[in-house]
Automatic annotation (TrEMBL):
EC number: 2.1.1.-
Protein name per UniProt: Methyltransferase
Pfam families in UniProt: N6_N4_Mtase
Reactions catalysed: a 2'-deoxycytidine in DNA + S-adenosyl-L-methionine = an N(4)-methyl-2'-deoxycytidine in DNA + S-adenosyl-L-homocysteine + H(+)
Naturally occurring in which organism (per UniProt): Campylobacter gastrosuis
EC class of the enzyme, as a word: transferase
Cited InterPro entries: DNA_methylase_N4/N6 (IPR002941), MeTrfase_CN4_CS (IPR017985), RM_Methyltransferase (IPR001091), SAM-dependent_MTases_sf (IPR029063)
Domain DNA methylase N-4/N-6: 68-281
Classification of source organism: Bacteria, Pseudomonadati, Campylobacterota, Epsilonproteobacteria, Campylobacterales
Family: Belongs to the N(4)/N(6)-methyltransferase family. N(4) subfamily.
Keywords: DNA-binding, Methyltransferase, Restriction system, S-adenosyl-L-methionine, Transferase
Parts of the chain that traverse the membrane: none
């Protein structure tokens, strides 16, 4: 088969694609990102592994530099949910930036970050994803892409139509959220003797940028804003190897920990609310295994 190359009209199949023309174009000339090859990984003390710390993740002093393989999280939304502080947008972004800066310190070279976030409000709409992408790029992360999580299969879709059946002021009812994906230092991680757990069918399906599965009931979980276990499950299998260390700096009810346990990964979580830490620890203790 003939290898493809970037052309004015795009190409239909991208097998053995030569993209050097695209990456050498001026578009990439002034882009800032940190590329670092190699770098030693540091072990996390046994006593700090598979544990949730009840404190702010702005300071993760329990974790050495270059020790975590995957960070995945859904940050607080600052929209006056039970657990939310009433921060200004600037204060809120400052909090996220300090957690993501600390995340960069603890990630190994090639380590990944997956941030599940939704844009919020209507009057006007606040594109939080735009601000978060900006922060991550300023911090020197390499963006890998973004996943649209289509939640329309869930029952609780909003009925706030705005002006129903009229162009007067119709309102978009968001049935999606985002998962923004980044790497530190290098896109690639060496496989060597590490084990993957993903199968062929899931790899082919999850490498598509739109994921469809329903949300989970806050009432059932006992936390105001949990994500369904399918979300960390896919990210963990797609972006990490078995025995890797998965960090969730806003772990809430512990969903990330449950997925990590089921998939033979280690976890570390941070959560400022001690009621949620208790809830997460009891879920972990009574966990039967989901997959
Ligand atoms: C969107 S929720 C995460 C829910 C979680 N994914 C789950 O499935 O349960 C965000 C969590 O971040 C916690 N939080 C807020 N600020 C924090 C901080 N500075 N450090 C650690 N946790 C924080 C909140 O208490 C809340 O439980």
């Amino acid at each position: 088969m003939k290898n493809s190359a970037t052309s004015s009209f795009g190409v239909s199949a991208r097998i053995g694609h030569d993209s050097s023309k695209f990456y050498n174009s001026k578009l990439y000339e002034n882009l800032y990102f940190d590329i670092k090859k190699g770098g030693k990984e540091n072990p996390i003390l046994e006593k700090n592994l598979n544990k949730i710390f009840c404190k702010s993740s702005e300071n993760m002093s329990e974790l050495p530099d270059n020790s975590v393989h995957l960070m995945l999280t859904s940050p607080p939304y600052n929209v006056s949910k039970d657990y939310d502080e009433n921060l200004t947008l600037d204060e809120y972004l400052k909090l996220l930036k300090s957690v993501f800066k600390e995340t960069k310190r603890v990630l190994v070279n090639g380590g990944r970050v997956c941030i599940n976030i939704a844009n919020i409000g209507r009057k006007p709409y606040i594109p939080l994803t735009m601000y978060v992408n900006q922060i991550m790029i300023e911090l020197g992360f390499l963006m890998r892409g973004e996943i649209i999580w289509d939640k329309s299969a869930s029952s609780g879709v909003s009925l706030a139509w705005g002006s129903f059946k009229s162009a007067s002021n119709p309102v978009l009812r968001d049935t999606h959220e985002y998962i923004l994906v980044f790497s530190k230092g290098d896109f690639k991680r060496e496989k060597r003797d590490k084990l993957d757990s993903i199968n062929k069918e899931n790899f082919m399906e999850w490498s598509k940028s739109i994921w469809r599965f329903g949300a989970v009931s806050a009432k059932k979980v006992g936390h105001p804003a949990p994500f369904p276990i399918e979300l960390p499950r896919r990210l963990i299998e797609f972006y990490s190897f078995e025995n890797d260390i998965v960090l969730d700096p806003f772990i809430g009810s512990g969903t990330t920990a449950l997925a990590a346990i089921d998939l033979k990964r280690n976890f570390v979580g941070y959560e400022i609310n001690d009621e949620y830490v208790k809830l997460a620890n009891s879920k972990i203790k009574n966990h039967k295994g989901l997959f």
